[in-house]
Write a structure and sequence with these properties.
Blueprint lengths: L22 H31 L6 H23 L6 H31 L3 H60 L5 H27 L8 E4 H11 L1 H7 L2 E4 L5 E4 L1 H18 L7 E9 L2 E8 L29 H11 L3 E6 L5 E8 L5
Parallel strand pairs: 2-4
Antiparallel strand pairs: 1-3, 4-5, 5-7, 6-7
């Protein structure tokens, strides 16, 4: 087909000559079509500039198709305005056909991405997510700060406690040297015994540090643990200490089952029993009570003594590593810290209920056997 025929207007009159047009009526059409064309030309340029600057936009092809579609529509309006003078209806028909093809191309490209567009989050949703992430980040920073402070306190305490037996050993080594130089052999066995005691304290402290550091690093598979069996085993193993303290141990009937590592549960009750025997048996008739109660899907257990109790201001402190209210007492002060760390690793908690001279109750709360 000769392309010139598209622009051949000899068979058609200009639109001004088709019918009776008033100037106002005709120019209203012309000016409106031109204004629409200018707007439809500006919009694609604006969209193109936007897409070029925002390279992270999803579905850029849709933006380009919309730009082409809008520009084609604007071209139709421009030709409609010129037909008032140049009746190139064949060319107008071709432009409308191209516009129709571009329109349906845009529709075909748009329909598959509509479900994806619907999944895009609104500014309000993004603001909520940013606020939530900011809150979580602040919480993480706070936890990190607390951990750093705890680590600093831990390092300070460990260095202090490790230094004590070293200072003791150094002192007794000096005494031993003086006795050897003076030929005083009678004092040497006693000095060696004290050196051995200091070294034993250091050995126990190092083992406690290693035990505390290993908690939470070893992955174990929880199993069903009968608390009555674990508590009975702890009581049997601690019989020499129980008899030495002259204490009576009472266990309530029907202790429930829980999902945990049996060794970890043993550690918890052994440390609480040892703590009660060491600090809670100064009364005339020392008694240690062990029991449990079930609340919904949680289990609450207690280890209670009738000793001197713990002041409220020390409840949190005694659960920290290497904290001892009585510096003259034996032990490294990590037993209750081990209890706290084990409970937290299983989604549980430990708390203290006590006032001075009325005994102390250590409460353990953790998921029951049926909890997920």
């Amino acid at each position: 087909m000769d392309i010139d025929i598209l622009f051949d207007s000899t068979s058609f009159p200009p639109r001004w000559e088709c019918g009776t047009w008033s100037a106002i009526h005709g120019w209203t059409h012309i000016i409106s079509d031109i204004m629409v064309f200018l707007a439809y030309t500006a919009i694609p340029f604006a969209l193109g500039y936007f897409v070029k600057k925002r390279t992270d936009l999803p579905f850029p092809k849709i933006f380009y198709l919309f730009s082409l579609f809008i520009f084609a529509c604007g071209t139709v309006h421009l030709i409609e305005a010129t037909i008032f003078w140049i009746p190139w209806y064949r060319f107008s028909a071709l432009v409308k056909l191209v516009t129709a093809i571009v329109s349906w191309w845009t529709v075909a490209a748009l329909l598959p991405v509509i479900p994806l567009l619907l999944k895009l989050r609104s500014p309000e949703e993004l603001e909520r997510e940013v606020a939530q992430r900011t809150h979580e980040l602040n919480e993480s920073n706070l936890q990190l700060q607390l951990k750093n402070e705890e680590l600093q306190q831990f390092v300070y305490t460990v260095s202090h406690d490790l230094k004590s037996p070293l200072v003791t050993s150094s002192g007794f080594l000096g005494v031993l040297r003086e006795d050897l130089e003076a030929g005083q052999m009678d004092e040497i066995p006693q000095t060696i015994a004290r050196l051995e005691a200091a070294n034993l304290r250091m050995k126990d402290l190092i083992e406690d540090i290693l035990e505390l550091s290993r908690l939470g690093q070893v992955i174990v598979t929880p199993e069903t643990v009968q608390l009555s069996g674990v508590v009975g085993e702890v009581i049997e193993d601690l019989q020499p200490s129980i008899q030495a303290a002259g204490a009576a141990v009472r266990v309530t009937d029907q202790l429930p089952s829980i999902r945990a590592d049996r060794h970890a549960v043993y550690q918890v009750f052994e440390n609480l029993m040892t703590n009660a025997l060491k600090y809670g048996c100064s009364a005339a008739n020392p008694t240690i009570s062990i029991g449990c109660e079930r609340i919904a899907d949680r289990v609450r257990c207690f280890v209670r003594d009738n000793g001197p109790g713990i002041s409220v201001e020390y409840h949190e402190r005694v659960l920290r590593p290497f904290e001892r209210l009585d510096s003259r007492s034996e032990g490294s002060g990590v037993g209750l810290a081990i209890v706290k760390r084990i409970m937290e690793s299983y989604g549980g908690s430990v708390s203290i209920e006590s006032v001075e001279q009325r005994g102390a109750t250590f409460w353990l709360e953790l998921p029951g056997e049926d909890s997920n």
